[in-house]
Design brief:
The complex is a heterodimer of chains A (98) and B (209). Chain A is mainly α and 98 residues long. Chain A has 4 helices and no strands. Chain A has 2 domains: 64 residues; 33 residues. Chain B starts with a helix and ends with a helix. By secondary structure, chain B is mostly helical. The chains are: A mainly alpha (98), B mainly alpha (209). The interface between A and B is large, with 47 and 52 residues.
Chain lengths: 98, 209
């Protein structure tokens, strides 16, 4: 019965929000393509990755509904991001000081 | 407990746990993130080791086709999200149309991929070819990672096409309804993950100029 009630008050993301996010994603794509054409030296990769991170934050929060879901899903997400980060840091330690 | 289940069933509701289903899906997605994460790690290490050769090899990829495929995937993510909202609001026709559109974009993506890879093959660029082996180590690594990572991603797109087709049939047959659509939601999550991975593949392979 609980489950049924939960379903009655489900969150519905409005069409307009999805379209807005899509516009933002397309704009960010055109920015990243334009920026790639300009030589920024060492910053080129950093800028590209920063834009990719912003795009994924939009996709995860809105398209994947994390912003409106229960907090436990954010914990899941954080835990897996940290795991990946630790693996990257440890590997680069090994790679740099080998 | 069995008594409880019976009561629920006599009310016409089959017991189900949507939050649990979603948790299971997210756990699966994390294994996917770790699978691709390992490959991104290899990419990162070798890019630091051979920055110049990665640059030379990256110039051979078409930014245009990469950009087109990015726009296609982002739009397909939008349509699958819209399909969920439409179903929640009880608009089955819109939901079905949006999901069909998603499938169309997914196929479009694969057609582009086919032409992109065919062009590479016809230039003698494929793993183990004479042309490839004549290149420097860093370039061979770049192309190896390119074929494996975009290949595995393309394989995920193919799985997504099969998955979303099944979901589409379920919606048409009213097996997925405005009151029970966790299957559609979870398939949507999978499709967004495929999009997410591409968001990182795109700048790392196609935007080296």
């Amino acid at each position: 019965m609980d489950n049924h009630q939960e379903h009655d008050k489900q969150h519905i993301t409005p069409y307009s929000l999805y379209v807005l996010i899509w516009v933002a994603l397309i704009s960010l794509t055109s920015i990243t393509v334009t920026v790639a054409g300009i030589s920024l030296g060492n910053y080129t990769l950093a800028v590209a990755l920063f834009i990719a991170a912003v795009k994924s934050a939009l996709v995860i929060n809105i398209f994947m509904h994390i912003k409106f879901d229960q907090p436990i899903f954010k914990v899941f997400l954080l835990l897996s991001a940290l795991t990946l980060l630790v693996i990257f840091i440890l590997t680069f330690f090994d790679f740099t000081y080998r | 407990m069995s008594n409880n289940v019976q009561t629920i069933e006599t009310h016409g509701n089959v017991h189900r746990d949507d939050v649990g289903a979603k948790m299971g899906m997210w756990l699966f997605l994390f294994t996917e993130v770790l699978l691709f994460g390992g490959m991104f790690l290899i990419y990162a290490v070798y890019r630091f080791q051979y920055p110049d050769q990665f640059h030379i090899a990256g110039m051979e990829l078409s930014t245009t086709i990469g950009t087109i495929n990015t726009i296609i995937l982002l739009t397909s993510s939008l349509t699958v999200a819209l399909s969920i909202t439409a179903l929640q609001k009880g608009n089955k026709l819109l939901s079905v149309s949006m999901l069909s559109l998603t499938l169309f974009f997914a196929l479009f993506f694969m057609v582009n991929k086919y032409f992109e890879w065919s062009a590479k093959f016809s230039h003698g660029l494929y793993p183990g070819s004479d042309e490839m082996l004549a290149k420097q180590n860093g370039e061979i690594l770049f192309f190896g990672l390119y074929f494996v990572m975009t290949g595995l991603h393309g394989f995920h797109v193919l799985i997504g096409i099969v998955l979303l087709s099944v979901i589409l049939a379920f919606i048409i047959k009213d097996k997925i309804t405005p009151n029970n659509f966790v299957k559609l939601e979870n398939s949507g999550l999978y499709w967004h993950l495929v999009d997410l991975i591409w968001i990182f593949l795109f700048p790392l392979f196609y935007l080296i100029q």
